[in-house]
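Dear support,

I submitted the protein below through the web form. The confirmation email said the job was done, but the results page showed an empty box. After a refresh the structure appeared. I'm attaching both so you can tell me whether what I see now is the final result or a partial one.
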Amino acid sequence: MKEKKKHNVFINGPISPAFIGESIAKHTTKTTIGAHDIFLGQVRADVINEKVVKAINYSCYEEMAESKFHEIREDAFSKYELTCMHIYHSIGEVNAGEICLFVFVSSKHRKMAFDACRDIVERIKKDVPIWGQEIFEDNTYVWKENKI
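What the results page shows now:
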């Protein structure tokens, strides 16, 4: 398969439900698609040391992160029979309850979409250099630890 061009995956702030809905709606004309799978990562209001997380401030080494996202995308297209794939991740502050990661894959059949989406999300969490500061209600913060 021909290598896809790189595109910016970063969105400043939260990923809005309207953006997600518009992304889904754009695929209604693609009649070779039989299945979509979507992963939405949402900021939790975790309690850490008796403090409630009100937001996460995401940052990254953008050039390296973009390169990793592109590598994940190319690997997924070579491993799975996908029709489409979209990945978006927030940069900046995202409040508890808001969406920070949107992965949307399409294929002819559901199993391929399910398997690809899960693999892509796991690779993002493991390989992409994105960091988050959990901001507490008292405006103190700690660096987030990713849990598998």
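Response: this is the final, complete result; the empty box was a page-load delay. The domain at 10-143 is CATH 3.90.1170.40 (Aldehyde Oxidoreductase; domain 3).
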